[in-house]
Specification:
Blueprint (H helix, E strand, L loop, with lengths): L6 H10 L2 H8 L3 H15 L4 E3 L4 E3 L1 H29 L3 E7 L1 H18 L3 E7 L6 H4 L3 E5 L8 E8 L1 E5 L1 H7 L13 E3 L4 E6 L2 E6 L4 E2 L3 H9 L4 E5 H9 L4 E2 L9 E7 L7 H13 L6
Parallel strand pairs: 3-4, 3-5, 8-11, 8-12
Antiparallel strand pairs: 1-2, 5-14, 6-14, 7-12, 7-13, 9-10
Helix pairs in contact: 1-2, 1-3, 1-4, 2-3, 5-10
Length: 293
């Protein structure tokens, strides 16, 4: 049985000197109050109240117990009020991690504006393309891109990203442009972390193998190579949006573009998400723009 069970009822009787008055104070029946207090006395193996036909008085043991539990009740009230205040004004420390480029460009600027609104928030951020273990490393929040692996972690969708196949107008003028996935083997493809690109043909997601004379694990380096006409590249939209807008890059094979991928806020499995983390997630959802490409 819950150790707190019966204490509120006992203190109400102690303060009012009456089971009837206590029942009105608590909004429950006299029978319920009496039963809860009796169960408390049985659990403590101590008589706390002396009941007569005219009044109810505390025993000596009841006086001691009432004094101590009243302090506990005040502490509980203070803790409850503190949580309510924190829900209105988030406080405390948040430890988060995010991929380097996405974190620098989108997550951290949003975090900074969140901190401007909430001066009692502290943030410890670690930008890395390595996926950390949230539970072992004590992280409150991780930003993950793309498909989430099955895990016990909880996640909330923050935004989305699209993969874009593109190249420079100069490359098209010199080598032509592919009009189907099967034509990619005739072109120099700029390779990132792996040599497979994601496409969607006839409603089916596919991974196609590509080849070329440049491979690099930096998205910005691949963008530069594509702008300089070295080949065709597939990258997330936020690497190439500005260059597509100013004409330095041209999207190709848009008809086989895969469905957008999620950008996720991932956090440890808890029955209730921490108030400050929930507030930050709400801010990220509102602040990080969804691509319209």
């Amino acid at each position: 049985m819950n150790r707190w069970h019966g204490i509120d009822e006992f203190l109400a009787v102690a303060e009012t000197g009456s089971f009837t008055k206590a029942s009105k104070l608590l909004g429950m029946s006299v029978a319920h109050v009496s039963r809860y207090v009796s169960q408390l006395e049985e659990r403590l193996n101590t008589q706390l109240l002396t009941r007569t036909t005219r009044k109810v008085v505390l025993t000596q043991e009841g006086q001691v117990f009432a004094h101590q539990t009243k302090q506990l009740q005040h502490a509980m009230d203070d803790a409850t009020a503190l949580l309510a205040e924190q829900q209105l004004t988030p406080k405390g420390s948040i430890k988060l991690t995010a991929p380097v480029m996405y974190g620098e460009s989108f997550i951290m600027p949003a975090v900074h504006s969140f901190m401007q609104k909430h001066p009692d928030i502290e943030v410890i951020s670690h930008l890395s393309n390595e996926q950390v273990n949230l539970l072992e490393d004590g992280y409150d929040l991780a930003i993950r891109l793309g498909h989430l692996k099955d895990s016990s972690l909880k996640a909330r969708r923050i935004s989305q990203r699209r993969l874009v196949i593109c190249c420079s107008p100069e490359y098209i003028n010199k080598f032509g442009q592919p009009h189907s996935v099967s034509e990619l083997h005739q072109h120099n493809c700029l390779i990132g972390n792996n040599s497979y690109w994601r496409v969607k043909e006839q409603g089916q997601d596919k991974h196609i193998k590509v080849a070329g004379r440049l491979a690099c694990n930096s998205g910005w380096a691949l963008v530069d190579a594509a702008i300089k006409g070295l080949g065709i590249v597939q990258l997330p939209d936020y690497y190439v949006n500005d260059h597509l807008a100013d004409g330095r890059l041209t999207a190709v094979l848009s008809n086989v573009a895969p469905a957008p991928e999620g950008v996720w806020g991932v956090y440890p499995p808890r029955q209730f998400i921490a108030t400050n983390v929930k507030a930050l997630l709400d801010h990220l959802v509102a602040s990080v723009q969804v691509s319209d490409l």
